Amino acid sequence: MGWFTKKENSWEIKHSWLAILSLFFPFVFPPLGMLYMGIVGKIRSLLYGSFLWMALYTGVYFFYFFIGNTTFFKLLSFCVFLGGAVVVSMYLRVFLQRLHLRYIINLEWSKKYDYKDFIRRKNISEILSVSTFIDSLTKWQTVVKNAEVRGYIAKMILLVKKITSQNDQFVSELFLERHAYSIENILQQYYQIELSKIENDVIKEAEEKLRFTIGQASQAFENELTGKMKFQNMSIEAESSAYLEDMKTRGLL
């Protein structure tokens, strides 16, 4: 994972070459860096900003050629060059994140994307179905040694089957979005702690926290099932009431 994205550091450096040049050579490259980042990342504000900074840079160099190397020129050029480098560095994170998203989706100009949330959803979508999630839980139940955690996982498997038993795709996708990716990460971390066989206060505290979280997750599954059943009962009652009212209107009751 890189500094600003989920890609490797080498990938970020490779695609930041013009931004890096802008920071090391602020007297030339910042407007070009803004233009490149604005076009590739589809950042309209940065694209327009590049034209403004090109005008400022042009004005600074014209001032030098026609007025000379005065104290005012030194102050003006320092502010303009520093400002250009600062703007590039401010947009670097957004540019890299949008560039990563560009490999996944078709970016829209100036549309804001929640990078972390999008990547989280993408990771969730890689869990193709409820059945694969159940298979994954079953795998963790097999390899985890702690009996209490295995019990929580068994409870989760049972509840997942009940919650998604009606083959409602929307309900299944929503359930996976809420729980699947986080549960996978938590169980993996817990299993790694078990494998480490390290015994100290820090590891013990982390193990207890993860075990408590897994227990709370199983309770959340149960609450979701209860909520679903209440919703179904409300739907039945509403449908029954509507049916009886219709029969009364028709004079059949």
Give an account of the 3D structure:
It is a single chain. By secondary structure, the protein is mainly α. The chain folds into two domains: about 10-110, no CATH class; about 125-250, Single alpha-helices involved in coiled-coils or other helix-helix interfaces (Up-down Bundle), CATH 1.20.5. The chain is built from ten helices and no strands. The protein has helices at about 10-15, 15-25, 30-40, 45-65, 70-100, 115-125, 130-145, 145-165, 170-195, 200-250. α3 (about 30-40) packs antiparallel against α4 (about 45-65). The longest helix is centred in the C-terminal third of the chain and has 49 residues, at about 200-250. The chain is elongated, with a radius of gyration of 29 Å. About 25% of the residues are buried. Residues about 230-240 have low confidence and may be disordered.
What is this entry, summarized?
By secondary structure, the chain is an all-alpha fold. The chain has helices at residues 9-14, 17-24, 30-40, 44-66, 71-102, 115-125, 130-143, 147-163, 169-196, 201-249.
* End-to-end C-alpha gap: 68 Å
Order of helices and strands: HHHHHHHHHH
Mean pLDDT: 81
What is the correct CATH architecture of the largest domain?
A: Up-down Bundle
Q: What is the C-alpha radius of gyration, as a whole number of Å?
A: 29 Å
How many helical elements? 10
Look at the structure and give the CATH class of the largest domain: Mainly Alpha
The proportion of residues forming helix, as a percent range, comes to over 70%
Question: How would you sum up the major sheet?
Answer: none
